Amino acid sequence: MPETYIEFIEAPPAPSGKTRRWLVQAKEGGRLGAISWYAPWRCYAFFPIAETVYEHRCLRDIGAFCAQRSVEHRETRTTRIPTRAPQPSQGHDSV
Fold first, then answer.
1. I want to staple 26 with a disulfide (CB 3.0 to 4.6 A). Which of 1, 16, 19, 30 is the partner?
2. Among candidates 65, 27, 28, 30, which has minimal Cα distance to 45?
3. Is 27 helix (H, G, I), strand (E, B) or coil?
4. pTM of the full predicted structure?
5. What stretch of H or E contains 35?
6. What is the dihedral sign for C-alpha 33, 54, 10, 19?
7. End-to-end CA distance of the chain
């Protein structure tokens, strides 16, 4: 029995260029859906094609994939660029 029945294929990035996307398909062929960033939940989510059916191992694999990619996304975005550089002091130095 195969360990998993699905595979994740990286797709072109989202139009914004800020997040990644993947197609989810059965190893035997046939597209099942896609994984992309879902801003309201602030994580990657699975968007299945209508009337597709999944068993527990596929659901587990999809969930684990989404969780791992969400963690990776957060790790790459932890350092933020300051909105403006600190300004030098404009007052006179006191002695």
1. 30
2. 65
3. coil
4. 0.76
5. strand 31-38
6. positive
7. 81
